[in-house]
Amino acid sequence: MQKTLVILKPSAIQRGLVGEVISRFEKKGLQIVGMKMISLTDEVLEEHYAHLKEKPFFQRIKESMKMSPVIVVALKGIDAVEVVRKMSGTTNGREAQPGTIRGDYSMSVQENIVHASDSPATAEIELERFFSPTELFDYPQLMHVHIYANDEY
Ligand code: IDP
Ligand code: MG
Q: In CATH, what number is assigned to the domain containing residue 85?
């Protein structure tokens, strides 16, 4: 089973989309194994978005991510990283496929509702960045037999 990180960005918090977005992941069959509200700092954002550090809009992204607290969510499931990326949609909300989170709720490249880890290796690093071991939970998913066939895990 894989775990992945989702961040509900200030655009999700301020627009009242927290329930909608989390509900999509729950209904899909992903298990919530960690969740909390936190304030992001420049230090964490410079690490988290290190690949964008040289971009002219980096300062603006940091300001945007600090406009309100965010909610970090750890989700577990088979191929969770890819499933959650697909459900999130491409970066630019205007171009994201309808039916995806960004495609349904965002009109922006920057204000695009969610962050989702982009590979299993990144997911591990990002989960460690935002959760301590005691904040990640291992508990049975009681509907398991209705979510997966036993040859899938
Ligand atoms: P991703 O979130 O789809 O993985 P990344 O390229 O990793 O996309 O960029 C991280 C975040 O930085 C995006 O979700 C978006 O909020 C912001 N961002 C990326 N490119 C741009 C841009 O060209 N203008 C403004 N913001 C951007
Ligand atoms: Mg990314």
A: 3.30.70.141
Residue 148 domain flag: no
Residue 71's Cβ-side half-sphere holds a number of Cα atoms within 13 Å equal to: 18
Query: Range of 124's domain?
Result: 2-136
For residue 50, report the distance from its CA to the centre of ligand 1, in Å. Answer: 12
Q: Is the CB of 35 under 6 A from ligand 1?
A: no
3-state secondary structure of 114: strand
Which ligand does the CA of 89 lie closest to? 1
pLDDT tens, residue by residue, 10-69: 999 999 999 999 999 999 999 999 999 999 999 999 999 999 999 999 999 999 999 999
Count of domains for the chain:
1
Q: Which of 11, 86, 90, 109 to mutate to test the pocket of ligand 1 (most atoms within 8 A of CB)?
A: 109
pLDDT in tens, 86-110: 999 999 999 999 999 999 999 999 9
Among protein residues, the one whose CA lies closest to atom 23 of ligand 1: 109
DSSP letter, residue 52: G
Which strands form 2-8's sheet, in the order they lie side by side?
A: 31-38, 70-77, 2-8, 114-116
Distance 48 CA to ligand 2 centre (A): 9
What is the per-residue pLDDT for 153?
Answer: 82
